[in-house]
Amino acid sequence: MAKRILITGATDGIGLETAKRLYSEGHTVLLHGRSAEKLATTERTLANGSSGAGTIYSYRADLSRRAEVDSLADAITKEHDQLDVIINNAGVMRVPETITQDGLDVRFAVNTIAPYLLTKRLLPIMSPTSRVINLSSAAQAPLEMDALRGKKRLLEDMQAYAQSKLALTMWNNALATSLGSQGPAFVAINPGSLLASKMVKEGFGIEGKSLSIGADILTRAALSDEFANASGHYFDNDKGQFGPPHPDALNDQKCAAVLAVVEELVCRQGPL
Fold this sequence. Notes:
By secondary structure, the chain is an alpha/beta fold. Helices cover 44% and strands 14% of the residues. It has one domain (4-268): Rossmann fold (3-Layer(aba) Sandwich).
């Protein structure tokens, strides 16, 4: 049965490769990107590269801006009354300006807070059989709450990135616990280390491994039965199996504390 699947950061890297797979298999793919031009190019790439394909919807938003995340959610809920899968793929590490208009570190804004806000806004059109796939990372570092709140600046790109990915994994697990069987499955995934994304090329100066490694696991996570009952679990694609994330993500109290701070951040700028 065809699914309705949202992929953030779908105009390049793992997101684009995953979109190609899912579209070619006949699924309805909701593409998100920051550039209208790249979104149009992605639409043409998908349409020209597949036969017997699905349906495409495109949405432009800068996930570092709270207002644009809200507008993205509004646009999606206006056009769709059901969503089967969210793949929160969009992420940043090295950026020219590290502070957003809202006064937050852009790595936390894009990698941690935006996927939470977007997911929460879209929960009303999801069901207990739906799935939220959050792209975590093998790089997970203990979280400094003041950095998440924007009260402390992290100067090292990898330090900020690693903390933001652990924070994402922690709210993933906290929502899985709090919503239980009433909510969709929340699964955090390390899609594979040092894949050939723009982020890896900019951050490490290497070409990286095939993007198909990441697209394979995201497609499986979106569609296969093995992920249907995996809410609150972490899949480490470097090892090819479910396993433990950073120990902090297994601490229910710490996860709940991160969820509370993220909720505080999205609410302080206006009601959800």
